Inverse folding.
């Protein structure tokens, strides 16, 4: 087991972001953790940057921002990133098993709200659902989390269960949180993207 992260709640959030939009790169010198963030959500980008800095404190001295079309890639160099994200490997995440190490499971169990916040910030949304019943239009907020990896969907569902938040699979690659009380509870951990 590697040294535990300096900030466990920040690590749980960063793990969620990594499972959605992150990837490690092994450079000639030092491994680089990269996480892609949409430019339309600057607050999420700032939160992710702060988590990257907090998780390794002194070891990750800086996070650089590389701009691309519609997104910014946050990157941080540190030799311990591969130890902290052992799920990294060749190929796409949905084409290989994603299993948490026991020490990661402990952190996620202790900080499920931070973990789902990272997951929803990377691959989720809070939207207004519109349905028509008997000619009447009903609008209500709901959350959707989409990911091609069954393992990552399962991890999200387990964390929502820990928080007592009702959810269901609405498609093979998406889960939905739509009950009023469940949305209100998830709002305390995630809220609308900013």
């Amino acid at each position: 087991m590697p040294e535990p992260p300096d900030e466990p709640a920040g690590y749980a959030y960063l793990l969620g972001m990594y499972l959605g939009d992150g990837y490690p790169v092994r450079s000639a010198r030092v491994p680089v953790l990269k996480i892609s963030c949409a430019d339309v959500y600057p607050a999420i980008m700032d939160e992710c940057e702060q988590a990257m800095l907090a998780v390794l404190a002194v070891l990750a001295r800086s996070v650089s921002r590389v701009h691309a079309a519609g997104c910014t890639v946050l990157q941080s160099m540190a030799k311990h990133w591969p130890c902290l994200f052992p799920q990294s490997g060749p190929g796409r995440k949905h084409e290989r098993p994603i299993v948490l190490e026991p020490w990661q499971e402990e952190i996620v169990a202790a900080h499920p709200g931070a973990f789902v916040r990272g997951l929803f910030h990377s691959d989720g949304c809070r939207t207004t659902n519109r349905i028509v019943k008997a000619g009447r239009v009903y609008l209500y907020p709901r959350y959707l989390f989409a990911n091609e990896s069954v393992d990552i969907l399962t991890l999200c569902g387990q964390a929502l269960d820990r928080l007592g938040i009702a959810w269901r699979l609405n498609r093979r690659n998406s889960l939905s949180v739509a009950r009023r009380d469940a949305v209100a509870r998830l709002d305390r951990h995630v809220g609308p993207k900013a």
